[in-house]
Amino acid sequence: MTSDKLSRRDMVRITGIGGAALFLSSCFPERAALFSTDAAEIPTREIPDIEIALTAIPDEVQILPGNKTTVWRYKGEVITGPAESLHIVPNSCLGPTFNVIKGQTIRVHFINGLPEKSIVHWHGLHVPVEADGHPRLAIEPGETYVYDFTVTDRAGTYWYHPHPHGRTGVQAYAGMAGLFIVHDKEEQRLGLPSGEYDLPIVIQDRSFDSDNQLIYGNRGMMDRMVGFLGNQILINGIADFNLSVSTHPYRLRLLNGSNSRIYKLAWDDNTPLTVIATDGGLLERPVQRDYITLAPAQRVELWVDFSQDEVGRGKNLINLPFDAIGGEFIYPLLRVNVEQLVKTSASLPDHLSTIAWQKESEAVNRRSPRGFQLALGQGMAWTLNGRTFEMEAVASDEIVRLGDLEIWEFENRGGSGMGMMGGMTLPHPIHVHSLQYQIIEREISPSNRGAWASLRDGFVDEGWHDTVLVMPGERVKILLKFEDYTGLYLYHCHNLEHEDMGMMRNFRVDA
Ligand code: C2O
Ligand code: CU
Question: What pTM did the predictor assign?
Answer without folding.
Answer: 0.91
